[in-house]
């Protein structure tokens, strides 16, 4: 379905505000703002998760899933910044690359998408996935060069892995929502959905990036 002006405007405004806050927290030498932001995201995701799964009576599923799929990735985001000398640059690199992947997948899928990837997430297309890969392979090396970051892994492989894991995290969150017949995790971010919807691409990519750095 073609993008409307209102949809583009809403997504752009919300995206700019969210990105500005996240990048400010990532670039700030003090960890306080990042801790506050991640705490808010973690609490918001927990609330949305339990709203999505409230009809489930599986105790261990509702206990372990948010710890593994929400708390651990968010904690890895904090570790990326706090455990490395150039942690601010590393976290900024991850955020910029993941958002590039998200934006390119969304717009490429909307404009050119024809082949559906899965019935669990009908808006995700093969064209969108390929668009995110190509974008990250182009932008990843540029970000690394511009920020003068060095990695012990080939930058093209790293960019591909981050794009792949970002899309996989998005897919897993979509799978969870479809299992419980939910379109969005919430509505706090307007057309972006809920908080869980906004950070789903970091749920796999953040732990992966952290362990690659280690």
Quick rundown:
With 214 residues, the chain is mostly helical. 74% of the residues lie in helices and 0% in strands.
Task: Indicate the multimeric state.
Answer: single chain
Overall spatial form = globular
Q: In the residues, how many domains can be counted?
A: 1
Approximately how much beta-strand content do the residues carry? Answer: under 5%
Describe the model:
With 214 residues, the protein is mainly α. It has one domain. The protein is built from 8 helices and no strands. The longest helix is centred in the middle third of the chain and has 26 residues, at 87-112. The protein is globular, with a radius of gyration of 17 Å. The termini are far apart. The model has no long low-confidence stretch (mean pLDDT 88).
Layout: helices, strands, pairs:
Blueprint lengths: L4 H23 L4 H21 L6 H24 L4 H26 L13 H22 L7 H25 L15 H5 L2 H12 L1
Helix pairs in contact: 1-2, 1-4, 2-3, 3-4, 3-8, 4-5, 4-6, 5-6, 6-8
């Amino acid at each position: 379905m073609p993008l409307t002006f209102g949809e583009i405007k809403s997504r752009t405004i919300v995206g700019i505000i969210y990105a500005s806050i996240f990048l400010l927290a990532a670039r700030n030498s003090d960890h306080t703002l990042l801790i506050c932001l991640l705490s808010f995201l973690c609490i918001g995701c927990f609330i949305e998760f339990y709203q999505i799964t409230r009809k489930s009576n599986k105790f261990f599923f509702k206990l372990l899933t948010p710890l593994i799929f929400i708390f651990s990735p968010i904690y890895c985001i904090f570790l990326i910044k706090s455990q490395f000398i150039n942690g601010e640059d590393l976290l900024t690199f991850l955020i910029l690359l993941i958002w590039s992947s998200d934006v390119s997948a969304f717009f490429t899928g909307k404009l050119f998408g024809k082949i559906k990837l899965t019935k669990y997430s009908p808006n995700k297309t093969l064209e969108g996935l390929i668009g995110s890969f190509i974008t990250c392979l182009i932008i990843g090396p540029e970000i690394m060069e511009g920020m003068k970051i060095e990695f012990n892994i080939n930058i093209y492989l790293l960019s591909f892995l981050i794009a792949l894991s970002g899309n996989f995290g998005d897919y897993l969150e979509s799978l969870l929502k479809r299992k419980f017949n939910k379109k969005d995790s919430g509505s706090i971010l307007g057309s972006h959905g809920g908080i869980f919807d906004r950070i789903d691409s970091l749920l796999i990519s953040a732990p992966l990036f952290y362990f690659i750095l280690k």
